[in-house]
Amino acid sequence: MSDWVFGYGSLIYKVDFPYLEREPAQIEGWARRFWQGSHDHRGTPEAPGRVVTLVPEAGRACRGMAYRVEHEVFEHLDHREKNGYERHRVAIRLLERGEMVKGTLYVAGRDNPAFLGPADEADMAEHILAARGPSGDNLEYLLRLAEALRELGENDDHVFELERRARAGTR
Ligand code: SIN
What we know:
Layout: E1 2-7, H1 10-13, E2 21-38, E3 49-70, H2 73-80, E4 85-94, E5 99-108, H3 121-130, E6 132-133, E7 136-137, H4 138-151, H5 157-168
Parallel strand pairs: 1-5
Antiparallel strand pairs: 1-3, 2-3, 2-4, 4-5, 6-7
Helix pairs in contact: 3-5, 4-5
Bound molecules: succinic acid.
């Protein structure tokens, strides 16, 4: 048995799981935001990093990567995404074959204990520049995500603005 999983953050560029198929994909009605705290990958419980989650936003599309995986893979993904993320069922548009499929994504809701919420862009960029955790620098997460989104042809103002500010290293 297999299922599709939609990745919109590190799941786009850090593929540490086996998959049967992979295809650029899009979901509708969600926006990607650096509003989730990371205690276990890009920060620590004392100094959490900032990573992406999804927030509902009507009329907005979010591009990422869809993978068709065996059910066993969810055990690994649940563990990897354990810091506040929960599985959610969505309709996924596969962009190459132009097909809709049902699948799963990991979303960290506003009520999870690691949720940080919105902040000033300059403050978010400084936060990302300063944080690091067991998976590496928070900055690397931001830069690799921005690069992966460019490769997907995604124009994500929020991510690109944080990238610009972080690269400049200042306000
Ligand atoms: C995802 O990539 O789909 C979830 C968020 C993350 O792990 O960065």
